[in-house]
Amino acid sequence: MSKTKTGGGFSSLVASLSIAIALGIGFLIYYFILGDPSNFVNNDPNEHPIEGNVLGIVYKGGIIVPFLMAVNLIVIIFSVERFISISKTKGRGNINKFVENIKSLLDANDLEGAIEECDKQKGSLANVIRSGLEKYESVKSDPSLTKEEKSEIIKQEIDEAIALELPMLSKNLVIISTCVSVGTLIGLIGTVIGMIRSFSAMGQGTPDTTKLSIGISEALINTFLGIFASTIATILYNFFNTKIDQMTHAMDEAGFAIVQNFNANNN
């Protein structure tokens, strides 16, 4: 039996490097793109942004902005990685059609045909079904085992194959789920810093309107970027979880069909 992990995905080292690179890119974008002098009055980043210049406005969000940009980049990087990896685990054809083909071949008692179908499909689902079919083939003619024991062995083999494949499907999803809360918290830190600066400007006798507006801008920009990162991460996390649930359901359905077929065709 072949227990090959097809989920792929980033290793822990590559994942860590990806996070570090995203953080570096966030700072580069902040200083060299958002902070480009041409985005500001008198070509001075310390001045107000040119009216309508979004890049300059975001730059005024302060030093928290590159961290929030890094969170958004991390969500994008790992979402692309998960999309590619989960697409590979599905195999070459439509999952539902593949499962139906397997059921039809089992009903026709064509184990070899079902195994060949798995070889054509490839992917995590095909690996699980192939493991069950190979075990089915090896135990069905074993006179030392009862029908119930054979059925249980096939079921255990399928469960083990599923347990081997599922971690690869959900790998790195924890990073995306972490970004849901981290994005909001970092944005909140930026909001608090901005509000502190605003109240500080208001507390100096005659309010410094420039400092007051900068503080308010910083608070609002960081709030927006934090909520945006959290929202995108939540949507993508739920999207990938739904895909994994669909794959898991297909594995369970196919495994049940194999066991039922064995019980119906063997005494």
Q: Please outline the major beta sheet.
A: none
Total count of helical runs of at least 4 residues:
9
- Oligomerization state of this entry? single chain
Let me know the average pLDDT: 88
Low-pLDDT runs: 1-8
Class from secondary-structure proportions: mainly alpha
- Element order: H for helix, E for strand: HHHHHHHHH
Overall 3D shape: rod-shaped
- Range of helix content: over 70%
Estimated radius of gyration:
28 Å
Distance between the termini: 25 Å
Proportion of β residues? under 5%
Number of strands: 0
Helices and strands, with pairings:
Layout: H1 12-34, H2 54-59, H3 64-90, H4 95-107, H5 111-121, H6 124-139, H7 147-170, H8 173-202, H9 209-265
